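Revision sheet: structure tokens.
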Amino acid sequence: MDVKDDTGREVVVIGGGVAGTSLLVQLVRTLSGRRPPHPVRAVRVVDPRPAGWGLAFGDEDPLLLCNSAAELNSLLADRPADFVEHLRAQGWTGSAKDCVPRARMAEYCADRAARAREQAGRAGIAVEHVRASAESVGAAADGRGGHRVRLSTGEELYADDVVVCTGVQRPRIPYGFAEFRHHPRYLDSPYPSSRIREGLRPRSRVLVLGTHQSAADAALLLCRDGHRATLTSPSGKLPAVRESLAAPLRAYPPLERVPRLDPADPYLEDRLARCVVEAVRLYDRRPLRRQVSRASDPVRRLREETTLAEAGACAWPDVIVPMIEQLISLAPALPAGRLEELSAEFAWLTDRYATALARVNARRLLAHFDSGALRVARPYPRAVSFEDGLWRVERSGAAPETYDYVVNATGFERPVLHWDRERTALHLDGAPAGGTAVGRLEADLRVRSRPGAPPERVWVVGVGTHVRIPFANHLRNVVRQARQVADRLAETAPPDPADPAFSVISAIRPMPSGDCLS
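Predicted:
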């Protein structure tokens, strides 16, 4: 029997991808397990796309695979096998360590979101999907406290609590191509893949900017459809190769030391590297140099590392997940700016190994290299122009080359929230004039309007937590964040304006009408 409950709080979840869906599912599970009245009576998920069908996973092309194994992709922190169980129920017969097409993850999110809505309805909790984009969060206008979420439609939603779960949206602008961002022969991203399948003339010559994961996706799509692709980047390096990003097979005591390292130690980088090396050597006595290729040619290196992965001759892939998760545990103790320094120091590790290619995609790329449909060109272009219907690209020490299209596959900017000049409204997509970036999150993932101010009733989950947490897109960590925030929402009573933790946004003047990014 449905239970009518007019008490409780209203929650707005901004973003309906993996992070937002995980938050919704885990919040509803927690609430529905309790007797009413519930502390939350309504949840609105704001996203113009269906649940799960965002930029990361919302593509139906079977060539685009999840980079992590199916066993890592559960939306539930306490049920790590949930995604595999969903796949099995759909007739899937693969291994839990396999990488599945990304659309399977989107379908899973949609299924679990639908179940959550049904479960919430039985518990008397209203769940609504609002098909719009959110632009800003400001103070509620009627003096009752809480927030108002300004939508792209011009409408506003009231919320006692807001959870920002937006992922990446804005493609990076590669060096030398800023003036061509809107050119009809320039694709600012390979996604959605329909842009490549439907927007290019047959048998085109395509320059792909980038050599990492997005570039590998672009190359696979282009070569399958009969185009000839050239990859280029400043490093000229392709990712390393592994079977998949899977759960660790065993404990790694050297990595368990990482969260206890002294954040102020000037030799922290060396100690971190030693922990990783010791972890690998604990279970494989072969030197690391024998577990990777040292070839300078990127295609030869790809071939050799694919062979190593297929032969089971490298142990480093099993260390990646525990390494990521121990570094996430260390990060909150780091002083300001130290996380950025460490990220720069270990860029070689994250660029090639933490984001390595699944072996199946490495083999597909090698087949295209061998057929002549794909190549890597170095160095990166020093000059580019569009003349007589073709891109003209010049490199140092090489003859000019021409291409029909350019595809930017250098990745996406990490999302950054911004306060407006008065610190009364939080903007979600770009900086307003005189605005200030949110460069810090509290331990419970809430934001503050300024140092010393009480934390707002606005949480961040997912990629946006990068200002506090490294590897912010690591899905297991995203799901744990969502569980943490869901538990907090399920336990929190409506705020008392006399409480010093009461939201600063709610206590200040309402945001002026129209003071939002368009």
